[in-house]
C-alpha cells in the first residue's frame, strides 16, 4: 500500500513539475505560484503545496525538470549523430527543433529563465547559469571533436561555441516574439555558414 502511495506521489510531483516548466516560460520562473499550478494541473492547492517546502524549492525542482527535458530533447538526439561536424550541426538542429516544436510554449526554458533571474542572485540563478555553461561546454566539446577529426580548423572552440549559441538564441527570441517559423530556416543557414567558415 505504501508503495502505491509513493508511486502516486511521484507521478503527481512529475505532473506538477512538467507543467511548472512549461508555465515558467510564459509567466517567468518567479511568476510560478501554487494557485497557478493547481489551476493548470487540476489539483488542489494543498495537493500542489505538499510536494514543495518553499517557492525556492519549487523553482529549483522546476529548473532540474527543465534540465532533464533539455537533455532528452536536445542532447540525446545530438549524441546519436556521428562525431565531428555532423554531431555539432545535429546539436544545433536539435536545439532549434525543440523551440520550433514548442516543447516549452515560451521557447527555450533556460533563455527565458535567464532573463527572469539575471538581477537576483541566489541558488535559482546559479542553477540556471550552470545549465547555460554546461550547454556552451557541450558545443565547445563538439567543436573540439570536429577539430580532432580535422573537419574544422584549429580556431578557438569557445569562440565558435559562443557564436553558434548566439545564433540559436537569436532564433529562439525572434520566434517567441514574432511567431514566424521562417526564422528557423534562416538560423539553419546561418549555422551552416558559420561552421563552414572554419572547415579546412
Keywords:
DNA-binding; 200 residues; disordered N terminus; 9 helices; Homeodomain-like_sf; DNA binding; Tetracycline Repressor, domain 2; mainly alpha
Describe this protein's structure.
This is TetR/AcrR family transcriptional regulator. The chain is mainly alpha-helical and 200 residues long. It has a domain at 60-197: Tetracycline Repressor, domain 2 (Orthogonal Bundle). Helix content is 76%, strand content 0%. The protein is built from 9 helices and no strands. It has helices at residues 2-27, 34-41, 45-49, 55-79, 85-100, 109-117, 123-148, 157-178, 182-197.
Distance between the termini: 64 Å
Radius of gyration, whole Å? 19 Å
CATH topology of the domain at 60-197: Tetracycline Repressor, domain 2
The CATH superfamily of the domain at 60-197 is identified as Tetracycline Repressor, domain 2
Q: Count the helices. How many?
A: 9
Strand content: under 5%
CATH architecture of the domain at 60-197: Orthogonal Bundle
Q: Specify the CATH class of the domain at 60-197.
A: Mainly Alpha
Structural class of the secondary structure composition? Answer: mainly alpha
The dominant shape is: elongated
Average pLDDT over all residues:
92
Estimate the helix proportion, in percent. Answer: over 70%
Order of helices and strands: HHHHHHHHH
Main beta sheet strand tally, sense and closure: none
- The total count of strands amounts to 0
Instruction: Point out poorly predicted stretches.
Output: 1-6
Domain HTH tetR-type: 10-70
GO molecular function: DNA binding
Protein name: TetR/AcrR family transcriptional regulator
DNA-binding region: 33-52
Amino acid at each position: 500500500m505504501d508503495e502505491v502511495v509513493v508511486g502516486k506521489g511521484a507521478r503527481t510531483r512529475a505532473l506538477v513539475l512538467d507543467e511548472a516548466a512549461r508555465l515558467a516560460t510564459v509567466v517567468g520562473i518567479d511568476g510560478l505560484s501554487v494557485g497557478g499550478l493547481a489551476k493548470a494541473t487540476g489539483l488542489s492547492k494543498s495537493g500542489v503545496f505538499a510536494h514543495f517546502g518553499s517557492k525556492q524549492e519549487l523553482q529549483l525542482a522546476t529548473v532540474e525538470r527543465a534540465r532533464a527535458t533539455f537533455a532528452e530533447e536536445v542532447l540525446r538526439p545530438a549524441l546519436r549523430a556521428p562525431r565531428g561536424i555532423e554531431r555539432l550541426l545535429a546539436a544545433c538542429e536539435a536545439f532549434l527543433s525543440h523551440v520550433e516544436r514548442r516543447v516549452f510554449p515560451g521557447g527555450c526554458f533556460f533563455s527565458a529563465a535567464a532573463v527572469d533571474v539575471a538581477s537576483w542572485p541566489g541558488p535559482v540563478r546559479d542553477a540556471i547559469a550552470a545549465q547555460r555553461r554546461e550547454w556552451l561546454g557541450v558545443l565547445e566539446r563538439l567543436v573540439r571533436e570536429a577539430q580532432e577529426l580535422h573537419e574544422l580548423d584549429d580556431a578557438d572552440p569557445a569562440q565558435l561555441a559562443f557564436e553558434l549559441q548566439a545564433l540559436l538564441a537569436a532564433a529562439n527570441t525572434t520566434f517567441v516574439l514574432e511567431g514566424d517559423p521562417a526564422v528557423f530556416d534562416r538560423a539553419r543557414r546561418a549555422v551552416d555558414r558559420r561552421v563552414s567558415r572554419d572547415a579546412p
